[in-house]
Amino acid sequence: MVLLLVAGMGAIAGDSLTYAIGRLVGVRRLQATRLRPLARLLRWASRRLGPRAGMVILTARFIPFARLAVNLTAGSTGYAYQRFFPFSLAAGMVWAGYNVAMGYLAGQWFSAQPLLGMVLAIILAIGFGVLLDALSSRLRRRKPSP
C-alpha cells in the first residue's frame, strides 16, 4: 500500500512539474524547439487537447513521451490546473496500481524460479532493443535526405 501511494505521488508530482514547466516556457518557445520529434509530439498534443482533454491526459500517462508532450502542452496553452489535476491524479494512481501489481505478480511467479525470471527479463530486454532498432531504422529510411 505504501509503495502504491509513493509511486502514485511521484507520478502526479512529475505530471505537475511538467505542467508547470510548460506554463513557464509558453507555447511559442515550446513550438520553436529544434528537436523535431519533440516538436511533432507537441503539435500532436495541441491537436488533441480540446473538448476531450481529460481522456487525452488519462491516456497519455501510459504512452511514453506522449505524457511529456501532453503535460507540457496543457501547461503552455493555459489549460486550467484545476481541471488538469484531477485527471493527473486518476491517471497517476491507476498507473501506479498497474505497475505495483505487475511487480507483485512477477515476484510471485518467479520467486521460486529466479533464474527463469532473469532469463525472461534478458529475452524481453533484447527483444525490446531489436524492436527499437527496427523502428529507428524504418524512421531513418522514411526521412528525406537534406
UniProtKB/TrEMBL annotation:
Record-annotated VTT domain positions: 4-104
| Transmembrane domains' residue ranges | 84-106, 112-135
Which keywords does UniProt give here? Cell membrane, Membrane, Transmembrane, Transmembrane helix
Keyword Transmembrane assigned to the entry: answer is: yes
Q: Which domain of life is it from?
A: Bacteria
Membrane-related topology note: Multi-pass membrane protein
The listed locations are: Cell membrane
Q: Name one GO cellular component term.
A: plasma membrane
Keyword Translocase in annotation? no
Similarity comment: family membership:
Belongs to the DedA family.
Q: Which PANTHER family match?
A: INNER MEMBRANE PROTEIN DEDA-RELATED, TRANSMEMBRANE PROTEIN
Protein name in the entry:
VTT domain-containing protein
Source species of the chain: Devosia ureilytica
